[in-house]
Each structure stands twice: as structure tokens, then as C-alpha cells.
Amino acid sequence: MDLAGDIRERLAALEPQQLELLDESGRHIGHAGAKDGGSHFHLTIVSRRFGGLGRVARHRLVYSALGALFPSKIHALAIDARTPEEAGAL
After folding, report:
1. Which long-range contacts link 13-16 to residues 24+ away (Cβ below 8 Å)?
2. Which of 5, 45, 46, 75 has the smallest number of Cβ neighbours within 10 A?
3. In terms of C-beta distances under 8 Å and separation of at least 24 residues, what long-range contacts does 19-27 make, across chains too?
4. For residues 9 and 21, what is the distance between their CA atoms, to the nearest angstrom?
5. Which of 66, 9, 68, 71 is nearest to 79 (CA)?
6. SS3 of 20-75
7. Coil, strand or helix at 83
8. Does residue 32 surpass a pLDDT of 70?
9. Superfamily of domain covering 3-88
10. Mutual angle of helices 3-11 and 55-66, in 10-degree steps
11. Is residue 89 classed as helix, strand or coil in its secondary structure?
């Protein structure tokens, strides 16, 4: 399985209603953390599991779900984590 597929599979534990994962590694060519490719991502995730949680707690849930992929496989991850109500308000 490729890295993006592994990320999606692990994030399924958060029961996302929406998940968008963008590989932004191409923007970081020449950066030491991007030498192996596929290591810089932007994640948009919508889940009821984020209800009542602040931004830091939401990010901790995502990091926990991804586990050992940090820092060996994922060098950088930008996270936009919202509840369904927050996502609908956009």
C-alpha cells in the first residue's frame, strides 16, 4: 500500500464524513525532509469525533491515529479538522 493509502486507512478510525488528502511533496523538492518523496501532506478531515474539542486536541487525535508514520514516513502535515456543523457553515 502506498503512503497516502496507509494514511487514509489509519484515519478511518476517526470515522470521517469527509477526508481530503493532498500530497504537497512536490512543493518541497530540495528540502531535506522531502528527499524520499511523499512526505508533505495537507489534510482536511470532517468528523463528529472532533465535537467539543479544541484545535490542539483535534490535531492530537489525528497524530494518534497516524502513529508511527511520524516522523519516518510523514515529515509535515497541515491539518484542517472540523466537525460536520463547522464544515457546513463554510
Report:
1. 13/65, 14/45, 14/47, 14/49, 14/61, 14/62, 14/65, 15/47, 15/48, 15/49, 16/45, 16/46, 16/47
2. 5
3. 19/43, 19/44, 19/45, 19/46, 20/44, 20/45, 24/78
4. 12
5. 66
6. EEEECHHHHCCCHHHCCCCCEEEEEEECHHHCCCCHHHHHHHHHHHHHHHCCCCCC
7. coil
8. no
9. BolA-like (3.30.300.90)
10. 120
11. coil
Closest CA to 79 of 15, 28, 7, 9: 7
Q: Is 40 exposed, middle or buried (0-12, 13-18, 19+ CB in 10 A)?
A: buried
pTM: 0.86
**What is the predicted pLDDT for the residue at 89?**
65
The predicted-structure confidence for 49-63, as pLDDT tens digits, reads as follows 999 999 999 999 999
Position 31 scores a pLDDT of 57
Find the mean pLDDT for residues 74-83. Answer: 95
Instruction: Write out the three cell numbers for 81.
Output: 479538522
